[in-house]
């Protein structure tokens, strides 16, 4: 498992726990490329472009809209503003 930055350092993100989401390496790659995101309510969102561009992603489409597991303690939870940023700036919504 790897921690993916919600907001990359190159886009003003910081090395902080709340600027990360712990993901499998393949999921991390899809997150970085905008095919997957986590919304501010900690639910998985999957871009329709994943299927269109790779002919793949059924594992993720089955889980779309489901909540992801996040730490219970507030300082360790992914930052909601960072997640909103990822949804609006990185996620390939169409």
Automatic annotation (TrEMBL):
Q: Does the keyword Hydrolase apply?
A: yes
The record's InterPro entries line, in alphabetical order, gives: HNH_nuc (IPR003615)
Q: Name one Pfam family in it.
A: HNH_2
Every copy of the HNH nuclease domain together lies at 2-39
Q: Which GO terms describe its molecular function?
A: endonuclease activity
Keywords for this entry?
A: Endonuclease, Hydrolase, Nuclease
Please identify the protein, giving its name as recorded. HNH endonuclease
What organism is listed for this UniProt entry? Answer: Sphaerisporangium aureirubrum
């Amino acid at each position: 498992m790897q921690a993916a930055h919600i907001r990359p350092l190159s886009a003003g993100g910081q090395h902080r726990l709340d600027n990360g989401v712990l993901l499998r390496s393949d999921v991390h790659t899809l997150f970085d490329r905008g095919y997957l995101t986590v919304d501010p309510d900690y639910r998985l969102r999957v871009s329709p472009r994943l299927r269109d561009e790779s002919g793949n992603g059924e594992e993720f489409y089955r889980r779309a809209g489901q909540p992801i597991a996040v730490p219970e303690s507030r300082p360790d939870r992914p930052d909601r503003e960072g997640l909103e940023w990822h949804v609006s700036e990185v996620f390939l919504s169409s």
